[in-house]
Amino acid sequence: MFIRRILLLAAAATLACAQGNVSINGSPDRKTGEGEGPFDRMVIRGITMIDGTGAPARGPVDIVIRNNRIAEIRSVGAPGVPIPERGRPPKGTKEIDGTGMYIMPGFVDLHVHTGGAPKAPDAEYVHKLWMAHGVTSVRGVPFGGMDWSLKERERSAKNQIVAPRLFTYHRPFTGEGWDTSAAQTPESARAWVRWANEKGIDGIKLGAQDPEIMAALLDEGKKFGLGSTAHLDQMGVVRMNARDAVRLGLGTVTHFYGIFESLLKDYTIQPYPLNHNYNNEQDRFGQVSRLWDKIYPRGSKEWNDFLDELLQRRVFMDPTMTIYSAGRDLERARTFEWHDRYTLPSLWAFYQPSRTDHGSYWYYWTTEDEYNWKKFYQVWMSLINDYKNKGGRVTTGTDAGFIYQTFGFAYVQELEMLREAGFHPLEVIRSATLYGAQALHEPKGKPIEFGIIRPGLLADLVIVDQNPLENLKVLYGTGAVRLNDQTGRSERVGGVEAAGGCRRHGRARQGEGPFGHQPRITERGAGLRPATPAVMPACGNAGKDASMASLKARFTSH
Question: What is the dihedral of CA 535, 539, 541, 545, to 10 degrees?
């Protein structure tokens, strides 16, 4: 399997972490040679731009980057004809030929964890898979332990490691130094928010806390500009569904929990089988899909009133459809082509049926289970698409590392599932870029620093050699298969060519790479096998981490 091309440039942030009591090895310090720049002035020439706003592609354009920010975007001609040199920006300190390529804002994943022992003990593996798929900013919910996450965010901000930009959200009443034995009350909830804010977290990852606790957490968090997202779990959703939570000020509803429960038609709680046990994960994940025919139907007053309320309150919907998709076709998820080379043996082992490993609930998965999950997705996707069509903001998240969803690859599948739900490809890219950036910046009361391609913003960018609007599959690290009519053979197109935690951008010739205080990029030359890393330059610095290639070299597959 060949690794081909994505040129990724991104404002880097990083993280190494321990999830709760689970240990994980931090990414190693960036080594000598893992970077180039920064450049006073870099020019990406003759490229086609997808700017992230939903506007159509435009090109050729020349993009000028000074240090780590976009300085100018200049239209320089028409497609299919030579570009006249007159009127083009002057030569830069670094030049990138973008002819025939496409540039987009770096992608944002709003729901991630960073593995951990035993399934994925090295953060480097996770970070590089994210970046190899164009994911340049991530929200940990959480990445790992609070102190660990904050420390690695600092390392990332200083470009000391190869990883995406990091935003760290944490669960209430957690964190090294907090007395977890203390009673949970509205007063202690407010005290925890103040304490965690002093520690430096970016936001709160809530469950379905009791109403008085939820109200205190959200109210206190808003005073300090902390973002909020919630997994409204089945043990608490009977008192805190999505409608309840957004009325208290919740900013993002993640997964589907709490949404279907807000629309129950003939019940006030889910009518579970009488032998249902939440701690039996096949019960937990098998029964939730049975809600598809228990709610008010699409187009009903109740359906529309619910979505209108979310819209009026400017709630972000972060579905993470990919993480549950094995439920509707287990065999497909088990046989993804990338498992063989890029899923760690330890992660593969974690995916196998287990009574103790979270999300490994395939004790006896049946046709009936898959039937109900397929019906569930039909309803869920209709609701997501209707919210988008009303003007609601739908974002992209993965929750990978469980249920046969491997880091990075799961992100592109999420994009494809938005397309399946009815999103135009330009709407998919907007969800992956602009809306993700807004979800991270708005709670802080700050304008976005990335998420669209505009002068003045960070040059946090992704470059690919195929048109992603025609085929989102070219964003997979393994690329897409296409018949070459000249040779009569199939070939790989797209895929990862360069990846890095770039603080800004670009493409260049083989042998260079991006990094440092500028875009960090790592290239995977066309046709290179995973164990053969090649590097490319980036906007300001280049990073020679050769994500996908070096992963194969460093980590053994099953």
Answer: -30
**Model pLDDT for residues 305-319, shown as the tens digit of each residue:** 999 999 999 999 999
Sequence-ordered list of residues with C-beta below 8 angstroms from that of 158, at least 6 positions apart, any chain: none
* H helix count then E strand count, the chain: 15, 17
Q: Which 3 state secondary structure label does DSSP give 173?
A: coil
**Residues paired with 129 in a beta bridge:** none
pLDDT, one tens digit per residue, over 526-546 is: 222 232 222 222 333 333 233
pLDDT digits (tens, 9 = 90+) for 135-171: 999 999 999 999 999 998 999 888 888 899 999 999 9
d(CA 539, CA 502): 8
Count the alpha carbons within 13 Å of 173 in the hemisphere toward its beta carbon.
17
Sort residue 174 into left (φ over 0), alpha (ψ -120 to 50) or beta.
beta
The burial of 407, by beta-carbon neighbours within 10 Å (0-12 exposed, 13-18 middle, 19 or more buried), is given as buried
Residue burial 121-134, b: 16+ Cβ < 10 Å; e: rest: bbbbbbbbbbbbbb
- List 227's β-bridge partners, or say none: 203
Token code pair at residue 286: 């098998």
Cβ proximity of 543 and 500 under 8 Å: yes
Spatial distance between the Cα atoms of 4 and 11, rounded to a whole number of angstroms: 22
Contacts of residue 355, defined as CB under 8 A and 6 or more positions apart, other chains included, come to 281, 363
For domain 107-444, give the fold. Answer: TIM Barrel (3.20.20)
- Domain ranges in the chain? 107-444
pLDDT per position as a tens digit, 162-217: 899 999 999 999 999 999 998 999 999 999 999 999 999 999 999 999 999 999 99
Report the chain's terminal Cα–Cα distance, integer Å: 15
Residue 307 one-letter amino acid: L
% residues pLDDT > 70 (the chain): 84
DSSP state string for 30-66: PPTTS-----S-EEEEEEEE--SSSPPPEEEEEEEEE
CA dihedral 176→182→188→189, nearest 10 degrees, is 60
Q: Which of 31, 39, 157 is nearest to 522 (CA)?
A: 31
**How buried is residue 89: exposed, middle or buried, by Cβ count under 10 Å (0-12/13-18/19+)?**
middle
DSSP codes, 488-515:
TEEEEESS-SB----SS-----TT----
Q: How far apart are CA 496 and CA 462, in angstroms?
A: 10
**What is the DSSP secondary structure assignment for residue 523, as one 8-state letter?**
B
- Other beta carbons within 10 angstroms of residue 421's beta carbon come to 22
